[in-house]
Amino acid sequence: MKHKDGKPFSHPDKSSRVVPMAILLVLLCGFSFYLGGIFCSEKDGYVSKDIAEDAESQSEINAGSGHIQIKPISFPECSSDYQDYTPCTDPKRWKKYSVHLLSFLERHCPPVFEKKECLVPPPDGYQTPIKWPKSRDECWYRNVPYDWINKQKSNQHWLRKEGEKFRFPGGGTMFPNGVSAYVDLMRDLIPEMHDGTIRTAIDTGCGVASWGGDLLDRGILTVSLAPRDNHEAQVQFALERGIPAILGIISTQRLPFPSNSFDMAHCSRCLIPWTEFGGIYLLEIHRILRPGGFWILSGPPVNYENRWRGWNTTIEDQKSDYEKLQDLLTSMCFTLYNKKDDIAVWQKSKDNTCYSKLAIPDAYPPKCDDGTEPDSAWYTPLRPCVVVPNPKLKKDLKSLPKWPERLHVGPERVADIRGGSVGSFRHDNSMWKVRAKHYKKLVQAIGSDKIRNVMDMNTLYGGFAAALISDPLWVMNVVSSYASNTLAVVYDRGLIGTYHDWCEAFSTYPRTYDLLHLDGLFTAESHRCEMKYVLLEMDRILRPNGYVIIRESNYYVDAVFVIAKGLRWGCRKEEAEKGFEKEKILICQKKLWYSSNQNSR
Prior knowledge:
Radius of gyration: 28 Å
Helix content: 25-40%
Largest sheet: 7 strands, mixed
Shape: globular
Number of helices: 15
Mean pLDDT: 87
Distance between the termini: 79 Å
């Protein structure tokens, strides 16, 4: 055989081909081991991105021992002007967003590159909060050092400053002489408030949450809701008092609650324009209110016949506003239940027969289509349509077991959850009784006046909260927006909670919780959320001297243990209950410290 130029063509020697192939094989093997070193993880899990990549916390994983060795992280202090920092409702960012429907007051979280990596300091002169139940009536001025409400609402007796304390006389815009008499009148209008039929409530535009605070002694658990606005720190005052509250506003997005969940909703001159913008605000109240539930309104335009002169308006305008409100409520299948003086009560339809009228082509508001899930409520836009209750939901408010029996009865909506059943609900209930008993041995402050405001950061059915129901505390049950939607079950059993994504900051002020509990949160969410930022957020919302209970695999317990030193937490590792040996418990306590850094970060 010859080349085209006539020279003979010779076959290469076989040995000359073997050598390059052998080299290539060695290179491929080496490269595969290199990749394996990067991507392979231990059988127990993997190090979250913040630990693996942070220059100050390089991890060395010992595959033989199964423990993580992490270099300590030192977090600097934020400047003192961050003492009331609320990352997702930050007034410094308001100008970036629209004033339409006050949407600038909604959640707008900073991007990752703007997240703070510093510890939020307490105000100068901060003291350990006053204990419950005394805290309902007073708090330290230096803990919430804001005077706007004291000056602007002094004639309405929301609060008043006396020496080093704020005192809460129980007044409000529509009840300047005290909230108790106001609630007494309400109970006369709604007998269901007496016998345990009504258990959960929401107060929109809550002020300093005196209404919700008064209801606690009457067996009704209220979520007090208010935005961060010119009424400085309404929600912070509420939580400092030991009353459940959360930052929020009905604007362009649904509230972070499931449909058909609250037994009662309340607005006391909350200045929400209920009949404007297609009635979207009232439509949202309709969505979250349980069939047979009650909506209470006091203030304009109720009792306009006697009140219109003090509202800087005319009797004709107020009469027109009341008629528009009544027409809108009727179109949504509400009926006027009772009315006296300044209070009017409407009841949502107990069944779905009324909603058939929404099928008429020109009906307004129309029935919502099936494009959006009724319970979808995390950054879900409001829509000008009626969310009709699921016809499979057989039990209206009257049909539910009364409180406290409903706490331990498997709700019908548990069957809507993948893998959910009454049996799994009962098992979860029994398991948390055992766990709570064990926790009380590890943290003896649980059940004492040292712990009032509690958060279960990733609950399933609210079992932890149910197990602590006899203690002088309340629990905010958080269900991840990425987890199974179990929050409706939490509400059905008479507890409260909210949806949240722990990659973002929670809707509350700094230093508002005494105890944070999480069960497998990092195992479930560390592929999305950097552990460092979750822990910094926990530190922001935890009160000085407050506690953290972290239930995780040994892998994550070891990681948090080291990072917690940079948060100025004191931690200790504990064993879990018998039968849960693969899980470990980390008990931490936040130390009280004061700012030594006045420079902005």
